[in-house]
Amino acid sequence: WVLEQQYAPSTGAKLELFRADPSSEYPYYEAALGCQALIHSAVVHPSAHTTSGTTVAAVLQSAARASIAQVILTLSVASLSPTTAKANQSDCTYDTHDVNDMATESTDALAIAHMQAEAAVEAWRKRQNIVRHRESQLDGGDAALPRVATVHFAEAWGPHQSKHATNVRREILDALSGKLPASYPIHYHTVDVRDVARAHVHIVESGRAQGRYIVSHSELSTVSMADVLYVVSLYPKLAQAFYMPLPLTLPVWVFSLIVPYHSSLRPAMVDAARRGPGCGYDGTRLVEELGFVYK
């Protein structure tokens, strides 16, 4: 059915929704037909009924059948960091060659889901190349596969269109609602959410994007929770609307005792707190190869 777009009614834009069965071979074919690009912006949690790998394979199958030119999988930097080689460093950057080798299902299920998604892309591409090779030998055809780009962005900051609170947003909200006596000893590697959105459009319009792209402005990426709360305190109306914790940062050992009893905290955060600011992320491939400009 067709619904009027709520966010921009003056444009007369329409949002068309399609019912799909993820268990079928081509669940998104009808929606993809006639489009030039397909953006898959969600990866199913590995504990869900349909794994992220299965979902991604279905997206790619549907895109190929619909002759889509460009597929983008929206992931995060969780699939490429941390690594044992760089985990205890702070004067380096993670790049598109890094692969997270420290995550487990119990410590970072999201990272596992994102790595499964990338593995599914490679497995699908190898299968399709074999199939296409056989078909070309039989009938001389050589239909091109969709270009697949994965977007790995750092923690996106900025206005959200959803009331759903991500882990980081819950941490900040907890601090501002009086649930924390002081800041957690953690750091965020951030990127403007508008740059993340613009990067997706830029990749589609480039007509040649393939492989991994990190969206992160390395020089401006690292802030601590204390930095965030300090910025809030600079705006009187905001500061008055919230409970501001003490301008102190909890010691790591105290933080490690709190994590098991707090629903919004993850075990991997204790290790991250011990590592300190850690390495940033190198988003220059997007700039050097595709001409993207961070705002």
Could you characterize the architecture of this molecule?
It is a single chain. The chain contains 10 helices and 11 strands. It has 295 residues and is an alpha/beta fold. The strands form 4 sheets. It has a 4-stranded parallel beta sheet, sandwiched between helices. Strands 7-8-10 form a 3-stranded mixed beta sheet. It is globular. Residues 1-7 have low confidence and may be disordered.
SSE order and pairing:
Layout: E1 2-4, E2 14-16, H1 29-32, E3 37-40, H2 52-65, E4 70-76, E5 93-94, H3 109-139, E6 147-153, E7 155-157, H4 167-176, E8 187-192, H5 193-206, E9 211-215, E10 222-224, H6 225-233, H7 236-241, H8 252-258, H9 268-275, E11 280-281, H10 284-290
Parallel strand pairs: 3-4, 4-6, 5-11, 6-9, 7-8
Antiparallel strand pairs: 1-2, 8-10
Helix pairs in contact: 2-3
Question: Which features characterize this protein?
Answer:
disordered N terminus, three-stranded mixed beta sheet, four-stranded parallel beta sheet, 10 helices, 295 residues, alpha/beta, globular
**Spans of 5+ residues with little confidence (pLDDT < 50)?**
1-7
Biggest sheet character: 4 strands, parallel
Rg over CA atoms, rounded to whole Å, is 21 Å
Walk across the major sheet and give the strand order. 3-4-6-9
Helix content: 25-40%
What is the mean predicted local confidence, pLDDT? 79
**How many helices does DSSP assign?**
10
Tell me the series of helices and strands, N- to C-terminal. Answer: EEHEHEEHEEHEHEEHHHHEH
Question: What structural class results from the helix and strand content?
Answer: alpha/beta
- First-to-last CA distance: 37 Å
Query: Count of DSSP E strands?
Result: 11
Strand proportion, as a percent range, falls in 15-25%
Outline, from the CA principal axes? globular
